[in-house]
Amino acid sequence: MDIGSAIRAIRKRKNITIAQICEETGLSQGFMSQVETNKTSPSISTLDNIANALNVPLTYLLIKKDERMAIVRKADRKVTTSGSEKLKVEHLSSTKGMRMMLVELPPGSSTGEVPHAHKGEETHLVIQGKIVAEQGEDSAILEEGDSFSWNASTPHRVINVSEGISIVLISVYTESDDEQESPMY
User: Fold this and answer.
1) Which of 13, 29, 78, 122 is most buried when burial is the number of CB atoms within 10 A of its CB?
2) Superfamily of the domain at 3-67
3) What pLDDT does residue 23 have?
4) What are the CB-based long-range contacts (under 8 Å, 24+) for 80-88?
């Protein structure tokens, strides 16, 4: 872990000197310098004191860089097409086992002629238009602002029944990161 570099980056971003951290924590400047250069590993109690002096949660110092907030700008979204109807899929963001997408369904289009299944759980929010969601023997008409969820291992499909484009926001959770393609679309 690179806790020292995180401490130094936070301290510099907040314009806090090592002397100020030491004054608040009671630690020596030599020790703080060794912490920031990763030459020594402070105890959890000491890290908690440093985190308090920096006004950040202790857990923020302990998480790995790749576990911190990830940002995907609109212009940088990965856009793909899916299925025979070439549904537009914008990949918004992802983290361990969870992905979020915006799917555009042209009028009369669907996620396929026959329902399909895959691993995972899905939640949906209809952003625009009107759709029919089918899973097994269940079927519902959903409009803008409506939401639904299902276990994706049961065959399912979505049909756009509006005269215009329907847009659905989807979050998909799977136990692992194995399934990287768009599961529903």
Assistant:
1) 122
2) lambda repressor-like DNA-binding domains (1.10.260.40)
3) 95
4) 80/182, 82/111, 82/182, 82/185, 83/111, 83/112, 83/185, 84/112, 85/109, 85/110, 87/111, 87/185
CATH topology identical between 3-67 and 74-173: no
Q: Please give the single-letter amino acid code of residue 13.
A: R
Cβ-in-10-Å burial (0-12, 13-18, 19+) of 124 comes to buried
> How far, rounded to the nearest angstrom, does the alpha carbon of residue 139 sit from its chain's CA centroid?
29
What is the helix (H) or strand (E) element at residue 141, kind and residue range?
strand 138-143
Q: What is the architecture of the domain spanning 74-173?
A: Sandwich (2.60)
Note the pLDDT of residue 182: 44
Where do the structural domains in the chain lie, given as residue ranges? Answer: 3-67, 74-173
In terms of Cα–Cα distance, which of 86, 154, 167, 185 is closest to 125? 167
Instruction: Answer whether residue 184 shows pLDDT above 80.
Output: no
Cβ contacts of 64 within 8 Å, gap of 6 or more: 1
Residue 137, pLDDT > 60, answer: yes
